[in-house]
Specification:
The protein is α/β, with parallel strands linked by helices. 42% of the residues lie in helices and 15% in strands. It folds into 2 domains: 217 residues, Rossmann fold (3-Layer(aba) Sandwich), CATH 3.40.50; 177 residues, Rossmann fold (3-Layer(aba) Sandwich), CATH 3.40.50.2000. Helix 9 links the parallel strand 9 and strand 10.
């Protein structure tokens, strides 16, 4: 089986859950002797690329140049994929070429898209190119349903395949339950330190509220982003800086080691898909305290059973849940075990097996489907259209590449 994945964020930190997912999936597929290729573009960080290549995954970052227009990138990409005789072509993250190449692919190649979040960045291109997608994957149940309801994808061509993550063994999680109560209650935040939909600045009132309840705690921020300076200043102003630890971006193994030390994880977002931070946490017996929003959060967390669901922005309620677990270690142990039990539905092995089976089914169905011609004249999606002629756009691309003008498009 030859699979080709498109991810334009492969070399551009900060890396989100979608890129982490792709690296885990591709490395696992390569370990099964599958031939796997990831296509991206050059960037400032090759750590994910190095991980992929060390696992036997082929990575191509040179199929087009920065001066190429989106439609030129798409032609180069499609021509290369067709020459390579790929069995399955997967659009994971791509603002342009990955989608624009779809009408140009050999009709014998099965196609898949993956919607990682609940928003137009994934829904809009899927709606435009739905007729060229054999299987539209949603990583959460709500995203899966939205691809059917809003993206012109029939139920037969839509699948829900949740992320999978490495999990602690039963012995490891039992050992976690026996940790002493004389240590501070350790709370983790995993992800980008941005306001946006992550609402990272809510961590400031959260920390002050926890301290006001006289809870001995430690807030561990694993990640980085544009709000770090504001967070440091806010924690200092709220006199909780000594309770907060900034770890920055850590590698996957380092994250897992940190999670083994944590009691609870907080996710404050006002929109999400199926956060890897949530799955990795429960897989390590960490109790989730998360926002009650339509997403993978409410599909995984059961209020008061394996975690807590809190309204967006209600830091008092978040602090109450932290205080409850910090002062009732028996409740903490019970919920920790429940969280870990829930994680068994999101194992890495289960995810990899599901993708392997899906790829085989898609490839077989495509080989038996009636042949159709490539649609070279299919209009590009709205986000890639321009009112300017191609020669002006080309001049601009050279000017941007040379640093003569700033790209504000």
């Amino acid at each position: 089986m030859r699979s080709v994945f498109i991810d334009s964020t492969l070399t551009t930190p900060p890396f989100g859950g979608a890129t982490t997912f792709l690296a885990e999936l591709c490395c696992a597929l390569a370990a099964q002797a599958e031939r796997v290729t990831v296509v991206g573009r050059p960037g400032s960080d090759d750590s994910v690329v190095e991980k992929l290549r060390s696992a036997g995954v082929e990575v191509h970052l040179d199929l087009w140049r920065s001066t190429h227009l989106p439609e030129q990138r798409a032609k180069r990409l499609a021509a290369w994929v067709n020459r390579e005789s790929a069995d399955v072509y997967v659009v994971s993250i791509s603002p342009d070429a990955g989608w624009l190449a779809l009408p140009l692919l050999d009709p014998s190649i099965a196609t898949m898209s993956i919607a990682h979040a609940d928003g137009p960045a994934f829904y809009s291109p899927l709606q435009h190119y739905a007729q060229f997608i054999d299987c539209a994957v949603g990583v959460s149940k709500s995203i899966h349903q939205s691809t059917i309801d809003h993206c012109s994808v029939s139920p037969a061509r839509a699948r829900h395949i949740p992320y999978g993550v490495p999990l602690l063994s039963p012995d490891e999680v039992r050992a976690r339950r026996e940790r002493g109560s004389d240590e501070p209650f350790r709370v983790a935040y995993l992800g980008r330190l941005v306001q946006g939909h992550k609402r990272a600045l809510d961590l400031i009132p959260l920390a002050t509220e926890i301290k006001r309840r006289e809870v001995r705690f430690e807030l561990n921020l694993i990640g980085d982003g544009e709000e770090r300076a504001a967070l440091e200043a806010g924690f200092a102003a709220g006199k909780v800086r000594s309770e907060v630890k900034f770890w920055g971006w850590l590698g996957p193994e380092q994250v897992r080691q940190k999670l083994k030390e944590m009691d609870a994880v907080v996710l404050l977002s006002d929109s999400e898909g199926l956060p890897l931070a949530l799955l990795e946490s429960i897989g390590h017996g960490v109790v989730p305290i998360v926002t009650r929003i339509k997403s993978g959060l409410t599909e995984v967390v059961r209020e008061g059973d394996n975690g807590f669901l809190v309204e967006v922005g209600d830091m008092s309620a978040f602090a109450d849940r932290v205080a409850l677990l910090a002062t009732d270690r028996e409740r903490l142990s019970q919920m920790r075990l429940k969280a870990w039990e829930t994680s068994q539905d999101f194992s890495l092995d289960k995810m990899v097996t599901t993708y392997e089976e899906t790829f085989k089914q898609l490839a077989a169905a495509r080989q038996n489907a009636p042949a159709h011609a490539m649609d070279r004249g299919y209009p590009v999606m709205a986000s890639c259209r321009s009112r300017y002629p191609s020669w002006i756009r080309k001049l601009k691309s050279y000017a941007v590449a040379a640093g003569l003008v700033r790209d504000v498009s």
